[in-house]
Structures are given as structure tokens and as C-alpha cells.
Amino acid sequence: MKPAGKSGQQPEKSLNLQALQRTPGFMLRLAQLKFFEGFYEEFAALGVTPATYAIFVVIRDNPGVPPSSLASLLRLRLPNLIKILNELESSGFIKRNRSKADRRAVELMLTPKGAKLIHEAARVTAPYNQKMLAPLSEAEQRTLLELLNRILPF
Amino acid sequence: MKPAGKSGQQPEKSLNLQALQRTPGFMLRLAQLKFFEGFYEEFAALGVTPATYAIFVVIRDNPGVPPSSLASLLRLRLPNLIKILNELESSGFIKRNRSKADRRAVELMLTPKGAKLIHEAARVTAPYNQKMLAPLSEAEQRTLLELLNRILPF
DNA sequence: TATTGTTATACTCTATAACTATA
DNA sequence: TATAGTTATAGAGTATAACAATA
Lengths: 154, 154
Known about the structure:
Chain A is mainly alpha-helical.
């Protein structure tokens, strides 16, 4: 998925959209598309995607996390995550250690290069989120996050 | 995309997830996945997907809507929408009329069979939404919808 | 020439099956 | 035998280019 599209920013004022506007799943989809499109614009220069951003953050905050935990957390199938991890490792952003306690298990770590990348990306995060949520007050932004957290199984 | 997955319902309590939980784009993605997975479960018997559900609703409320408007509203590329419309038409759920004012333009309508299908689907909608939003009060559900509407360009 | 709809096609994302190695 | 990781591969979903018919 790449950039926006010329046709979608002020869509079709003349249509009756009440039913969809009251459909949470549809509104969540549109909101997620907006965030992902904005993400690609803001983070393109760093070469970070929504998926790799989340992977970096989780490894940063949980060094040694195994791929299986990462996959279930991010809602990625393990084989699909492995492909991304292979690219991140061959690019030198992460490394894999074999666990000494259980030699089947893999422990994921950031390399210094990876730590540097997520550090730079993290500085874009706040202004990016602010831009996406601009129509909401600070309190409303917190409310939105809290409601989303409540409907999810954390 | 089809059903849930055994591994993701109570993910990884032991990990530090604070950063992602404060990342609206990530939480929106998880919420959207939850709604779509639940949708497939609830609407599978009717053969309706999130995309076709939205298409049916817009045509029902806006008979004669052209494919181009439908595509920009639903954030689908026109060629991808056309493929879905072809299937819905050959299955007898919608029909295409050529506009008399502009013979390039197509006007989309539900057939009686399509109207019946969306009528049956609409009866599943309220309990489905209630199930997805169960952790929220009625007032909170309204707040969530309102905040999502505010960050989108309607 | 520009616009609407359409076809063909490529690319990305996601899903399943099967394999390796450890336990 | 069961589990963690990996590979291979198939299937959706989404993207662009090019074309026909009409304006």
C-alpha cells in the first residue's frame, strides 16, 4: 500500500452515508487507512513501515522477545513475520540469538544500527500522531486511545 | 482474510507494550482486525464480506450511485471495485443501468434479491456491533463513533 | 482532449502446509 | 510426540497501465 489518492479526501457530500457513519467497523477501517497513508508519508525517508515500526518498538522495549510472541502480539502469522525479520537482520537492524536454555528458541535484539533507526523514527512519532488527530482536543485524543484499549484484549 | 487464530486472544501479558498501546495507528489496526474477524464469523452464513456489505448499504441508500463515487467513498480503487461489482451482478444482487443523460455513466441499483440480502444482513448488524463493543457503555460507544467521524473527512 | 468504466496485470499482504532442529 | 522456527507456496487485497466508449 502506498500513497493516498487524489479522489478521496472530500468524498461525495451529496450521498447519504448515515448508515456507514454509524458502522464502527467501517469507520475503523477508514481511520486505519488514514493513519497508514499518513505513516508512509512521514516515515518514508527512514524506510520504516507500520509493521517494521511496531517490530522495532517491541524488540526495543522487550529485548530477547521470541518471534512467536512478537507474531501473536502484532497479529502477524509467524511465517510472514519471519520474512520481515530476515530482511531486518540482513539489513543489519536486528540480530537473532539462540537461547541457551532452549536451543529451539530465538531471542531478538536490536543492533546499534537498529536502535539508532527506531530512535530517529520515535522523534517523528509525536508530530505524526498530532497531525493525524488534529481535529481532536488533547482530552479527546486520550479518550479515543482509552476506548480502543478497552475493546482490545490487553 | 478468514477466521481468528488460536494464539492471539490474550496476548503476552508479560511483555512491555506501553509504547504500542499509546500508538493510535497500531490500536486502530488491531481494532479493525477484531471487527473484521468478528464480521466474518457473524455474516459468513449470508456470504457477505465487509466490502460487499458496505457496497450494498451505499447502493441501498443511494440508488443510481455511479461506481466512481462508490469507489472513492469506500476507498477502493475503481478497477478493484469493478471486479466485485461484476461478481455481485452475475450473482444477481445488483444491476447496472446506463445513464440516459451521460451514456458513459453507470447507475447501480439493488435487485430484489440484493435488497432481500442486505435486509437480512441488517438484522445481524446491531447484535454484531454490540458484541464487538461489549466492553463499552452505550455512551462510550457513541463517543467512539463520534471521535472516529471527527478525524475523518466527512 | 477529457472522463467513465473496464480489462489486464503486477505487487503486497496474509494464510496454510510441510520441513528442520530441538525438547 | 510436541514445540519453535523456518521455507515454500497459494490466495486475497490493492496498485498501475492501457483501452473502449462517450462527452
